[in-house]
Protein: Cobalt-precorrin-6A reductase
Organism: Paraburkholderia agricolaris
Amino acid sequence: MKRVLLLGGTGDALRIARQLGHEHVYSLAGLGKVPDDLPCAVRVGGFGGSEGMARYIADERIDLVIDATHPYAAQISANAVKAGGVARVPCWALRREAWQPQAGDDWRMVGDWAELTAALASFKRPLFTLGREPLAHLDEIPLQQFWTIRCLDAPETHPRARILATRGPFTLEGERALFSAEAFDVIVSKNSGGSATEAKLEVARECGLPVVMLRRPELPAVDREFANVADLLEALRVSA
Ligand code: NAP
């Protein structure tokens, strides 16, 4: 059986990790919860760039790297491909499909924080569902705006922001209740894909709310790419 280094930090990665035996390693950056009930080994923290990861692959006699990180975690994905190249082990990736706008959607695509704030200029009550990045900009909240920021933890407080510390999956009913209670006038999102956080898009559509969508970063080519967990696990089983 090949020894796998699985790069994770997503629900999909956790599903893969649950299927890996004790000889494999699940790697997390250390920002979120560290599972303590996995059959495989778990390591936490950065490797020290692609060179550090290449050294880890050699030292731990890893045969295959699987990148199942979030589609916006571009640095670790680039490092995985580089490290695999240096250590001469293949790199596979789980690349879940992006959401596509549907009839009635009003998506406004932006590339970075400056474009994002420009796109929000005419709104009053944005809901940010981008993770922690807005927390670094609390002092820049325009006078006419009140921000709601949904992310994993709420280390800050601010008189013109509400920070909702919560993790998905989010249901349609829950999103409807939140949207109606908070009267958002725009939603800010990454195009994460998958079903766990998709309900907000459906409710935005129902309410006729625009979505300011941060474009996906470019990710490097890998030896094999999978769109879902089942296909990846099957390929792993066949290659064992
Ligand atoms: P990133 O910008 O691509 O990576 C920054 C650095 O964090 C990497 O260079 C690496 O440090 C370390 N790192 C990231 N993922 C790692 C992993 N699985 N194992 C070990 N080290 C890791 O990543 P990010 O956007 O900060 O995301 C960090 C973690 O959160 C990832 O596991 C990702 O899957 C998860 N996540 C991210 C998002 C998002 O929107 N970005 C959303 C949900 C979950 P070294 O260079 O020192 O190795």
Residues 107-214 form a domain with the Rossmann fold fold (CATH 3.40.50.720). Residues 7-10, 27-29, 31, 46-49, 52-53, 69-70, 72-76, 79, 131, 190 surround NAP (CB under 6 Å). The mean pLDDT is 96.
